[in-house]
Amino acid sequence: MHELSIAEDLSAIVLEAANRENLEKVTRVNLSFGQLVQIVPGIFESAFMECVRNTIAGQAELSIEIVPVRMKCRKCGKDIIVEDNNFNCSECGSDDLDMVSGRELYIKSIEGE
Q1: Rounded Cα gap, residues 21 and 1, in angstroms
Q2: Dist CA 98 CA 72 (whole Å)
Q3: Mean pLDDT by 10 residues, the chain (113 residues)
Q4: Residues 39, 104: contact at Cβ < 8 Å?
Q5: How far is CA 30 from CA 50, 110, 112, in A?
Q6: What are the CA-CA distances from residue 85 to residues 69, 70, 81, 88, 95 (Å)?
Q7: How far apart are CA 48 and CA 67, in angstroms?
Q8: Where are the beta strands (DSSP E) in the chain?
Q9: DSSP-assigned letter for residue 78
Q10: What is the pLDDT of residue 1?
Q11: 45-59 burial, b for 16+ CB within 10 Å, e for fewer?
């Protein structure tokens, strides 16, 4: 369950940023995860909330955006969204693709008082 280790790392970043900005309370954390990170949002949210329990982020709302896998074909230049783990160009069938998105894992923003 890699959600726990990611939750531990991200909660530490959130708390450090909140401290640096002199926040008394973190009200919302906005996150982006690429589809290839394979986060299960419910499991991640439970793990994150456990990591921040009894802290200024203990009541924070989480907003999780799952970013689809997007690729660009090197052969024909078409941008594609990967569905059903089909890593071939829908235009020309090539598997010579460059990753555009889908591996992200970052905090978009932290809101607080």
Answers
A1: 31
A2: 5
A3: 91 97 97 95 96 97 96 96 92 96 96 96
A4: no
A5: 17, 6, 12
A6: 9, 11, 10, 9, 12
A7: 19
A8: 26-34, 61-67, 70-73, 79-81, 97-101, 105-112
A9: -
A10: 58
A11: bebbbebbeeebbee
**Per-residue model confidence (pLDDT) at position 2:** 86
For 102, left (φ over 0), alpha (ψ -120 to 50), or beta? left
pTM for the whole structure:
0.85
Let me know the angle formed at the C-alpha of 109 by 106 and 110, rounded to the nearest 5 degrees. Answer: 115
Take residue 85 and report the two structure tokens written for it. Answer: 């783990």
Quote the tokens at residue 56: 């200024």
**Which residues lie closer than 8 Å to 21 by C-beta, 6 or more apart?**
110, 112
Which residue, chain included where needed, has tokens 């799952």? 66
